[in-house]
């Protein structure tokens, strides 16, 4: 009677008050955001290390993003499994007979069938494979540029500076969400995001230091960070706009298409780059393995979790949540002995003040989302 137990639990959850359902979805979304933030901070150090060894940002980005194609066979397996499950439950539904025993079998079959029917379709309840592929085609170039500019900036900036400037995607996401998907523009949201931006500025001042060679490369790195932040904000909003909500889509198929399109669209660009930089493929097998490992964790796994978080929390809250990377990066650089502001009272004060402002803005925006979801 495990099926009856599952049905009872599912039925009970469906009868929960709206605030309880909101809490469950938002809490899960927050866990995903925290996990993704930690993975991305760690991966920034890995990317910096790989680029120090001579790996071109374009090659690293191409390998990592192409690995999304692994989701396509996963999608096929999920579809096959669901088809078998539906066929099996149709068999239960067709059971006929008299007496108490036959009646129990009928009820068992009907209830189990109800569970399977509640599961999201492997192809999306309302979106066909073609719709998802078209959405992936539109989003793929934006995602690739965001990743490439982020990786390239790490050649010129510290992880803390990179994380701080990339967090300006909060501002781009908020503005683009208002323009493209009609997200509510409220005083509390504006104040929360402004608080985050103030925190980012404080940490940026604390982290500022003279760079070697006149600082030109640092300026290039900062510009690349801002380009990445804009593209990432646009990607976040388009993800929400194109995929609508968590119950409609197969994220495995969508990301598989992103990987396939990245692999095919940017291969000619990679070959063209090789004409001018023949050493791009002169990479050891060990470093290629590290690129693949980085792609599997930092791109394939974490970006799937990130997309789920966007669909559970909404683009603005999810992106502001990623501002938690700032204090995470600060702690990581202290542990690795790379924090230039350690030992200087003014810089230390600004760093911790900035971290507090980022956290305050994050939780302030979460409260605003709670009010909108439950009471409006």
* Head-to-tail CA distance between termini: 40 Å
* Secondary-structure element series: HHHHHHHHHHHHHHHH
- The overall pLDDT, averaged over residues, is 74
* Main sheet makeup: none
What is Rg?
A: 24 Å
What are the low-pLDDT stretches, counting only 5+ consecutive residues below 50?
Answer: 1-16, 96-125
Number of strands: 0
Silhouette:
globular
Please report which band the strand proportion falls in: under 5%, 5-15%, 15-25%, 25-35%, 35-45% or over 45%. Answer: under 5%
Measured as a percent range, the helix fraction is over 70%
Provide an overview of this structure.
With about 375 residues, the chain is mainly alpha-helical. It has 16 helices and no strands. Helix 2 crosses helix 15 and helix 9 packs antiparallel against helix 16. The N terminus is likely disordered.
